[in-house]
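Let us practice reading a record.
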Amino acid sequence: MELEFKSYNEIIEKAKSEVREKGHGIYYENHHIIPRNMGGDDTRDNLILLTAIEHVYAHYFLALDCEAKGDIQHYIANIQAAWLVISGKSKFTAKKRKSIEDWLKDENAQKLSLEIKQKFRESRINNGPNKGKKLNMKDRIWAQKDGTTQKPVRILERNLGQGSWVGYIKIVDCPICHQANSETSFACSEAHEKEYLEKIKNEFRAKRGEEVKARWQNEEYAKRIIDANTGIAHGSTGIWITNGIDTKMIQESELEKYTNQGWSRGRSNIQGYAQTEEYKQKLSERRKNSCYVKKDGVVKEIKLDELETYISDGWTRGTYGTSRKGIKQPAMAWVHKATEIKRIRKENLQEYLDNGWVKGRK
């Protein structure tokens, strides 16, 4: 895969010339224009958004420049940074993984990846305290940060419980079947590796759910959150309905029509439905075919084929720079009754209280 730039400066200038924002379909990650390993800081002027592929090339070109100058220390730091982006040793999201996998389908990208991997290995063998030595994997163990969904990593056993490795637990064998793990994986097979990672994710979600539930049972906490949310605008004037499979919001005037078709008021199944493949597929399609636009402090989601019309009308794509400051919001309040919870305008609160509703969202 050939890029239109052939140097580090060209990558940076191209990124500066574009309006880039995270969360709008293109995966970006922060890059230090002057890397921290070369004395750069975390100020806004020294940060720029690059795609994962641009990030690989950026550190690769920096490494080559340092190598040409005989700056071995910074050559090693940047070639290792380039390899970390490719190999997933750094923060790795689904979008990043897909962009790297798509990139590696190209023959030139594969060649560059192999070159960076080789340089990375040579840098570890030929420099530093392990110069001339091969890494002794027998001294390394698999360990995982306790209580998180973090993927297990390989560390020196003597470092467990020290420095940045405090809070890690040792994985002595396959966490699914307890057979011996391998040098390349903390599990005995790829299937058990995936099963374990999914298991700890589910356990983490369940634990967080119980923690949130316990917090809401604390009356002082519930009152503080309710009071903090009073006065914030509701995102819609509609009501939720469900048919046991789908959940959607409609105008109250449409309720009778949907009730006759078997729908009922509420969204009790939304939590379970949100975990289904059907819901995830619908959400994925919606995100692919929509975007956000802003104008005069207002942000709205539109279909992609409407973007050109909005742009010509003075809207700009994205949400960056928008704020609620100066926008008058109607006062709102939470009320509940039996199994129903509503967010209403505060001016209507007394009417609801007179009809048996209670303030709050227990």
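A brief commentary: The mean pLDDT is 79.
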